[in-house]
Amino acid sequence: MPQINKIAVIGAGNMGSGIAQKMAQEGLHVVLVDIDEEFVERGLNIIRQTLKEAVERKILTAENVHDILSNIIGTCDFEMVADADLVVEAVFEDKQVKFDLFAKLDQICSQKTILATNTSSFYVHEFAEKTSRPDRFVGLHYFYHPAKNRLLEVIPHEKTSKETMPSRSSRKVRSSSLISNGAHEWIFHWSADTIFSRAANSSTSTKQVCAFRKSTWRRQSTA
Q: What positions carry a catalytic annotation?
């Protein structure tokens, strides 16, 4: 994945605001977009509340919170995402709404921009085909709460280029990542080093994922 400095998140609900917070915590500039100012403000308030709780629990300092919030801009103006390096869609699971959104983003965004969907219900290629950049389209499935849960499922489709895929150097985006073969498995955990070393030769198969699923879930549940 190319150098990422500016990210746009479309959809300021619980998941979208969480993704925006996670990216901002990593020091990236984030534009949080929704169709109504009320929705944008609600998303920003969710972030503020989550950060407040982190301060109360002594996870973050007031200075940390100031720096994180200064990295986030909330807006209804889609033109503000035109120069983003990466745009992550996090709207509700309606296929037509996502179709229309990606067609719009494809027209607005620079050719360098990578488009990503956070969908947990649909095939990534269905949305990629609605754009003129299927090679720069990927699934980035965050798990709730994105700012607290470091797991990220990366879902390429058959036309996703190698350059689009997160690399070891794109830690700010990928957290602890698992590369899926597009089968939409709910994957709980696998170390990033293991994933990326194996992915260098071939995609992680659904069978491999399932083999780790039960024991890993048990470890997480008792942690």
A: 153
